[in-house]
Amino acid sequence: MKIVIKEEKNSEIKRITEQFKGKLSERKIRQKTGAAMNETMRRAATAKSKQLTLEKYNLKKKNLKDITQISPKAYYGKLESGLKISSLPISMIDYTPTWNRGGSALSIQIIKGKTTVVRSAFIATMKSGHKGVFARGYYPGKGRGFVFENDQSRIGKGRVRNDFGEIIGGEKTGHIRITELRGPSPFSVATNKDIGNKVRRAMGEDLLKRVEGLLRKTINEMAK
User: Is residue 48 within 8 Å of 37, Cβ to Cβ?
Assistant: First the structure.
């Protein structure tokens, strides 16, 4: 997901900055406007995105650390600021899976209130100390889900039957792989129009306050 604001496309920013012409230099106005845009992205847009994600997904704040980046950053020469939100999948262990009674399957709530049961999966800690949820199988790529493998499901060398009964190609070696399970990136899933509009609305309201506030603060500091 990416959100970008451009000064030349925002009539409200232009209206505010026009009030300060003659009181501040053009360069100073643009510098402070750029700083306000970047700060809005860093605080308002990032905070709102994470808030909406935590409301929907069974995650903790620590799971969302360092997954947003301000790019591009606005400066006086180009008043354009953007927020990039990572689309990398989050490890399934971060969704706090629990064992079912008897320990035959894992129960996981990725979206709050919706429990998914994953059989043939297990929790393990690697030699490196990394803890995760693992299963026999692999991700075939191109957005396709995880393909579980076991001795009974193998259909010839390098061929497997997935959860839907489809026979698909596996590795030519025919070896069964152990792969860490990943949950969806909450930002890539949750960036529907409703959430996107909420983020943009919060960002827009904050931006105008920051632009005007920084410019007035600069004038007050110069008057001292």
Answer: no
pLDDT surpassing 70 at residue 50: yes
| Contact call for residues 56 and 48 (beta carbons, < 8 A) | no
How far apart are alpha carbons 109 and 97 in whole angstroms? 7
Say whether pTM exceeds 0.85.
Answer: no
- Cα-based angle 174, 175, 181 (whole degrees, multiple of 5): 120
